[in-house]
Automatic annotation (TrEMBL):
Protein name from the UniProt record: Ribosomal-protein-alanine N-acetyltransferase
Keywords: Transferase
Residue ranges occupied by any N-acetyltransferase domain in the UniProt entry: 18-164
GO CC terms of this entry: cytoplasm
GO MF annotations, alphabetized: protein-N-terminal-alanine acetyltransferase activity
Species this chain originates from: Mucilaginibacter mallensis
Top-level taxon of origin: Bacteria
Gene3D superfamilies: 3.40.630.30
Amino acid sequence: MLNLPPYKEFPELQYDNIIMRQISTTDIANIIDICVYDGKWAVTAHDALEILNKIDKDYQDGNSIHWGIVDIGKNIIVGSCGYYRGFDNDTGEMGFILKSEFRRKGYMLTAVNLAANYGLMDMGLKKVIAITSNRNIKAKNLLTRAGFEIDRTLTDEDIQYKYC
């Protein structure tokens, strides 16, 4: 049985050096450079706030859940990870982004695994997918290391992975 958002309390996920939590308005200045919605990137704090409001509406409507990835020691958001585009056919599509200065430190591998396991075990999803460009070698490598495998080729450019 599915257990989809919104939840009475926003779920926090933690492992090792990260905690995944809801992004709040107090985080705005720290997330401008990684804030994007429907392909539109934030440039200003106002843009980021508008995007955060759209993400929160999607969450309240039961169509997504989006965590900020927080470095526990530094107490700052280093990236985000979550499910987007609804949950048709009991499937969650994962998306993620990490600030460039925090890449290659294990943050995203941990976050993707936490979110994938939460989706399957706590939300009751039957399938977790991620879609990336065939040219995005870093994302493809991350997905493979996180336990995803190629599910199907969507176009000449895009590949769909599934969590196994």
